[in-house]
Amino acid sequence: MSLDNLIPPGGMTPSDLVRLGAEFALGVEPIDMAPQVLETPIYTGRLLAHEVQQGLMLSAGDVTYISDQSFAVEMEPALVCGIMLSGDPVRTEVEGYGSFVRQPHQVNLMGFDRPIRYTTPLERGRNFRTAGFVLQSTFFDRFGDDMDDDGISALRELMTGGFRTAAITHSPRVGEIARHCLDHPYGGHLGRLFLESNALAYVIEVAQTLKDERRLLALLGRREYDRVVHAREILDGDLVNTPTTLELARRVGINVTTLQSNFKAAFGRTIFAHVREQRLMMARILLQEYRLSVAEAGRRVGFSRPSAFSAAYRKHFGHPPRSEHR
C-alpha cells in the first residue's frame, strides 16, 4: 500500500487520518497486553510484567500458590512499590536488614542502593492479587536535581542509605489504579499506551501521597495522624453501616471536635464528604457491574431521592449515573 496514493489532492483532514489508520490496522496483528495465564508447579493464575519506560517496570498478578514455597528474589538497586489488593499479611525477610510485614490494601515501598536478596514464605492455597512498579536510577536521571516540588524526590530518597521501607496505609486512588493494571479492556498499541499512562499515574499518585503523609506527620504528630487514619479505615471498612461521628471518635480515642478538625486537615474534606464520596464510588460499581437501576443504586448508598443522587453523581464523576449502563 503506497502512502502517496492515499493522500487526497486537497490534503488530509483529521477524519481522513483516522480512516487511514483504520485501513493500516487491518494489516497489523494486535499486541497482546493482557496478563498472561500461567500454570506452573508453584502457582497458577495471571501475571503481567512490562517495562513501559526506561527504568519503569509495571507488574501485576492474580495467582494462587499450589505448594508451600520460600520465594527468593535477588535484585539490583531499585525502588519497589506494590499494593496487595487481596490476600493475607505476608512477612518478607531481607538478608542483612531484618523483616517487614506487608498488609492487604497497604501500599508498601522498599528502596535500596545496593544489590539485595529477600525471601517471602508462601503457603499452599493462598491467593494474592497484587500490582506495583519498579523504578531504577535511570528513571530518576531524567529529572536531574530539580525535584523539590513534584513529589518524586520523596521516592528517590528511599533509594539512599542502604535499605529503607515505607508504607502508605490507605489510598483509594492507588487501589483503583492498581486494579486497572490487571483488568483493562485494551489491547495492541492502545493497551501499551494505557499501561504506560497507568504506570506513570501510579508513580505520581504514590509520590504525592507519600509527600502528603510526611507533611501531615509534621503537622499533626504521629499519634494524632495514626488516629485519624484509623478513623478513615473504620469508615471505609463498613460503608453500609457507617458509625456516627460520636461513635467514631470514641472508637479512636479522641473527642469529636479534634477528630473533625484533624480529618479535614489530613484529607481535605469533612467526614460526611468522605463517606458520601466513597458511597458514590460504591454506587458506580453497583451500576456498572451489577446493572442496578439509578434509583435502586442511589437508594442502596443512602440517597432517598433519585434526583439528589443523580446530581451528586454528576458533580463527582462528571456524567450522569444512567450513562454507566451504556
Automatic annotation (TrEMBL):
It comes from Shinella curvata. Signal peptide: none annotated. Pfam families: HTH_18. InterPro entries: Homeodomain-like_sf (IPR009057), HTH_AraC (IPR018060), HTH_AraC-typ_CS (IPR018062), PchR_regulatory_protein (IPR053142). PANTHER family: REGULATORY PROTEIN PCHR. Residues 229-326 form the HTH araC/xylS-type domain. This is AraC family transcriptional regulator. Keywords: DNA-binding, Transcription, Transcription regulation.
